[in-house]
Structures are given as C-alpha cells and as structure tokens.
Design brief:
Length: 252
C-alpha cells in the first residue's frame, strides 16, 4: 500500500488561514491522503516507524469523507471525488499548520527526525490570509489567546517569525506559498499548481468538483471588530517586515 508514496506533505502557518480548505481538496485527489491535525512530528519524536505514521494518517484521513462533518465550522466534503478512498497513494501528509510550525520552532530537530523516519522528500505548503482578517478570527475563536486582540497580534507574528526562520532552511522547490484570497479567485488554477508541486496529475473533473465547494470571496472578518489606528499601524509595521505578507494592508 505504501510503496508508491514519493512525497510527504506538511502545512505550516497559522490557524484560521484557509489551510483546511486546501487540505480537504487535496484529500479529494485519488493519489493524495491529507489528514487534519494528526500531529505527525509528535509521533516521529516518540519513535514511531514510517509505516505506523502512515497507518495513523490513513486511518484519520477518512474524516473528510463524512459529508456532514464540519471542521472549524465549515464543511469540506467534495461530492463525486476521492475523500476517504484512493487508487494509489503517492502523496501523504498532515494539515496542522500552526501546530507543525510551533513544534518545529520549539524543537528544530523534530523536523530532521521526521525526515529520517519518513525517508521520502518533504514538501511544505504555506497559505497566507490578510493578517487583519486572520488575527481578528484568531482573537474571536481561540481560547488559548483569551479571545484577546493584542495577544492574537503577538501570537500571529511569532508564527511569522518562526516561518521566516524555517524558510531559510528550505530550498525553493520544497515550499509552495499562496495567498488565500488569490486561491478563492482562481481555485482551479492554484489547486492544479499545488498538485503539480506535489507531483500528482489532475483531471478537469477533479478541479471543477473541488472548485464548486470553494467560497467565492474571503470573509473580511477585520470589519467585525473595532480596530483602533494604533493597532492598525502596529500590524502594518510588522507586515512590512515579512516579504511573504507583501501587499496586505487593512484596506486591501
């Protein structure tokens, strides 16, 4: 079952940024199994073998196949596609953007341990969302941040710094970065680009079916709370420090 796997996929980034949508659409591909929030770095550190981690991933991957299941308040079931089943697995991995980022930040050796355990190339997907929207949603949905805007700002840019450090250790061909807003505008184009990056072919039917469940426009949650001018300026100053956030402003 595992002999055709040639790519391991990890998501890095932030909660509430659009990773779940992309992960679910990839899991609808007949050659890809992406699960939500397994925590594979933890299992590698505990000494689990490659086949044991693959087994845990495959067992948990069935979650996307439940058409009534919600993840983060959204449904990601793709009718007529391959969630929960497959023809031949070529790509397998875990969609735990923030958790993976934090684990690598706390223990950089955990990534090397996973590389040694898996023994196939690891590729990273980094989805960005307008920081003002991302931070707002984090502040409204995340209990560990006490539902506090200032704590959410600090936490978000802590993750940005962790990602910037990780990127210095990766070759360009190992990471695919995409803005959530661009993905929503052209889901078929960018989903095909991600599949090409992971090394799997796509059909037009697969791309069209996936695009049907994608929201047509981003949720501009920044307008759901009151941002004062000092907070807006604080975040913009931080945004300008990271090239992968270029172009984002409170108004755009």
């Amino acid at each position: 079952m595992w002999k055709n796997i040639n790519t391991y996929c990890l998501f890095i980034g932030y909660s509430r940024s659009g990773h779940s949508s992309v992960g679910a659409l990839l899991d609808a591909h007949p050659n890809v199994r992406i699960v939500s929030e397994l925590g594979d770095l933890k299992y590698a550190n505990l000494g689990f073998k490659r086949w044991q981690i693959y087994y845990l991933l495959l067992k948990k991957a069935k979650s996307y196949s439940d058409k009534d299941k919600t993840i983060g308040g959204y449904k990601y079931y793709v009718p007529k596609q391959w969630q929960g089943k497959f023809t031949s697995i070529k790509v397998i991995g875990d969609k735990q953007g923030e958790g993976t980022t934090l684990r690598i930040q706390v223990n950089p050796l955990s990534l090397e341990r996973l590389r040694q355990t898996i023994n196939v190339p690891i590729k990273f997907i980094h989805i960005m969302r307008n920081p003002y929207d991302n931070i707002t949603t984090m502040s409204k949905k995340t209990s560990k941040l006490d539902y506090d805007l200032l704590k959410s700002i600090d936490h978000y840019f802590f993750l940005c710094e962790a990602i910037a450090q990780l990127k210095t250790q990766l070759a360009p061909h190992e990471i695919y970065e995409l803005k959530h807003e661009l993905f929503l505008e052209n889901p078929q184009i960018y989903l095909k680009a991600i599949c090409d990056f992971l090394g799997v072919e796509t059909t037009q039917e697969y791309l069209e079916d996936c695009a049907k469940i994608v929201y047509k426009s981003p949720n501009k949650s920044r307008h759901s709370i009151a941002w004062n001018p000092e907070q807006i300026e604080q975040v913009q100053t931080k945004i300008n420090q990271y090239s992968f956030l270029s172009g984002y402003t409170y108004d755009n």
